[in-house]
Amino acid sequence: MVFQSEYADVPPLETPLHEAVLGRAADFGDTPALIDGTDGMTVTYAQLDTFHRRIAAFLAAAGLRKGDVLALHSPNTVAYPPVLYGATRAGATVTTIHPLATAEEFAKQLKDAGARWIVTVSPLLDVARDAAARAGGIEQIYVCDQAEGHTSVLDMLGSTAPGPEIDFDPAEDVAVLPYSSGTTGTPKGVMLTHRSLATNLEQLRPFVPLGERDRILAVLPFFHIYGLTALMNGPLRYGATVVVLPRFDLAQFLETVQTHRITGLYVAPPIVLALAKHPVVGDYDLSSLEYVVSAAAPLDAGLAAACSTRLGVPSVRQAYGMTELSPGTHVVPLDAQDPPPGTVGKLLPGTEMRIVSLTDPGADLGTGADGEILIRGPQVMKGYLGRPDATAAMIDPEGWLHTGDVGRVDEDGWLYVVDRVKELIKYKGYQVAPADLEALLLTHPSIADAAVIGVHDADGNEVPKAFVVRRPDAGGLTAEDVIAYVAGRVAPYKKVRRAEFIDAVPRAASGKILRRELRDRETPR
Asked: What residues form DSSP beta bridges with 265?
């Protein structure tokens, strides 16, 4: 059966992203749009509107043209939104780069995306320069702050060039190009159009109403689709104030909630864990908080309840989605009374869902049965950049996106995500593709074969574990050697946290790694 949303339908929003978000900025005027949580610097809505337009004018005058790809490589700062919206107003596609990416990882994304421009910050400038040299084809590297020899975004704000006049096709033009591993494999560029992103904001409105009185703390990264939508696009569309932090530090996080009287938190499970259990939480006045929403990875129902009780807020709401879905498909509404524990929510407006059999993929299942979650709606990505085969494997001819997640729906329409078909590891909400780590491990001269799975640490986080087969001449290769070899070559969130030596990696006749057998070693029945 096809599950339909119980909410009124939302027609696709045929609007460029920057207009969907900042179209009412002038109405909000002097209302603070962005506040730097580290030093209190404030950008009003009127300033944000002006700043992004001047950035667009500068970029257009510098030679950026519609369809160019600009790489935005930065932690969260108050400059991130005006740069992103300025670039899209100038007609660019913005590919968001993890600020902790190595130069090699950064270069791969630049080359795959066909990027011509980079905006970074001075502490990351050396990595950006190295990546640009490796990738080639980069016209300019700009900085959000100040660095000798590089134009600053601050300089762009003085541009007197005319604003670009761009003819947008919101259904086809790609606004943002984040990278995702999908259900498996190496990272791929996810083509999110202006329409898919703008429509998803409209779909979310009845679930998480926002207005000028709301103060949202943005600590999850803007480069990630969850942060981009929930902490940037969504709040700024409705006049809320976004208080920005560059990274998660618990004491700073709590101090910011207290000082700025934060009303809403959008977080991932590791932050919920800290809020529920860390003793320092009791030292701060968090009474301004009205709700907490957790997404990006599964959240234990007991942990959610413990956090809710400690903070004195209604049950911690969950949400569900993925990069390829712009990202939202399900949210527990803020006004829901006593939603069932563990649910990730109800279908957003204009979204359809099927639950299909794991043993007979063409067979639809009804309520109460576990199966793969399929989604169809206007928020579905345009496809993977330059990878038609991967796109076809993800989205079937009828437009159903196969999420790779296993879920079930109860009689009241609540969705529960119970497992994953896909091999992707979610470390603190970040995607880690086992295939990437396996390919890296096989470059070690003492490793004959390797497989990587996700296991859980003492805090309940999913972490990568490597199963390694030594070469006969491996000598004294240790687990610590394996872990250090990977750590020196990948971003910190991708690091292998555990390693175990085995005689052989279990494989099917086709050569596919039988990861379930490795998981069974971790959780013997």
From this structure: 217, 292
